[in-house]
Write a structure and sequence with these properties.
Structural class: alpha+beta
Strand order of the largest sheet: 4-3-5
Number of strands: 5
Helix content: 40-55%
CATH architecture: 2-Layer Sandwich
Distance between the termini: 59 Å
C-alpha cells in the first residue's frame, strides 16, 4: 500500500486556503465541511483546520457562529481585528447576514465596563426569519 506524500504548508498558506473555502461556501460551514470541500486540493487534519480558523478569527477575517457551531468569512471591514460582529440567521433557509450595529455594541461594552467585566470576544446573533422567507410564508 503506497501512501500519498503530503507537503507541509506554511500557516499563512493554510489560512489563505481555508479563508478562500469559507468565502466560496457562501454559508456557515463546519471544520469538517471545510476538509471535505478542500479534499481535492489539500489533505488537512481537523486540528490543522481548527488552528487556521483560530488564526483567522483572531485576525478578524472569520467568525464562529456559536449557535450553529459553524464558521463564516468576515464581510465587514469596519470591525476587522476589533469590535463585534452582528449576524442575522434565518431559521428557515439558513441565510446569514453580517452587519454592524455600533450602538448595540457600545451599550454592551458600557455595561461590561460598569460591571468590571472583561470582554474577550463579542458576537451577537439574531435568530428568526429573513425577509424572503417571511414573504414566501405570506
Amino acid at each position: 500500500m503506497t501512501r500519498k506524500v503530503t507537503k507541509r504548508r506554511p500557516a499563512q498558506e493554510q489560512d489563505k486556503l481555508i479563508f478562500t473555502a469559507l468565502q466560496e461556501s457562501g454559508r456557515p460551514v463546519s471544520a469538517y465541511e471545510i476538509i471535505d470541500q478542500l479534499r481535492d486540493r489539500a489533505t488537512l487534519a481537523p486540528q490543522t483546520v481548527y488552528r487556521a480558523l483560530d488564526r483567522l478569527i483572531a485576525s478578524g477575517s472569520a467568525h464562529r457562529l456559536e449557535s450553529l457551531n459553524a464558521f463564516v468569512a468576515c464581510c465587514q471591514s469596519t470591525h476587522k481585528g476589533a469590535g463585534a460582529a452582528v449576524f442575522a440567521i434565518c431559521d428557515d433557509c439558513g441565510t446569514v447576514s453580517e452587519f454592524a450595529e455600533p450602538r448595540a455594541v457600545e451599550a454592551l461594552a458600557s455595561w461590561a465596563k460598569k460591571a468590571k467585566y472583561t470582554v474577550r470576544a463579542m458576537t451577537l446573533e439574531l435568530r428568526g426569519r429573513c425577509s424572503a422567507c417571511t414573504a414566501r410564508m405570506a
